[in-house]
Amino acid sequence: MRRLMxxxxxxGAAGVLVGAFGAHGLASPEAKGWAATAGQYxxxxxxxxxxxxxxxxxxxxxxxxxxxxxxVVFAAALAGLALGLPRWLGAVAPVGGVTMVAGWLLLARxxxxxxxx
Length: 117
Description:
Blueprint: H1 2-25, H2 29-56, H3 63-82, H4 93-116
Helix pairs in contact: 1-2, 1-3, 2-3, 3-4
């Protein structure tokens, strides 16, 4: 869990950088929107994974890992679109979204099981 939390902190930093680049380095409103969304999801999920690690430690299960992996895939797809990479990357974003949802559901289960005992 320590490594995942350290990676999460790096993803938080990356989220801020993506958001800042979108706000100051991109001209297209559409690209700015993609970068802003990527930064928000990456930063928000980084904070959630840090909280899960602090609260549940090893009992968190695979949920936080899926949350962070999904956020990275989702944000990378949107950032790629913002940078002008091929539009088919837009089809990758939902994979990240589904992975984030699965992570949240597994985290909810871990919390439920921990609070029940």
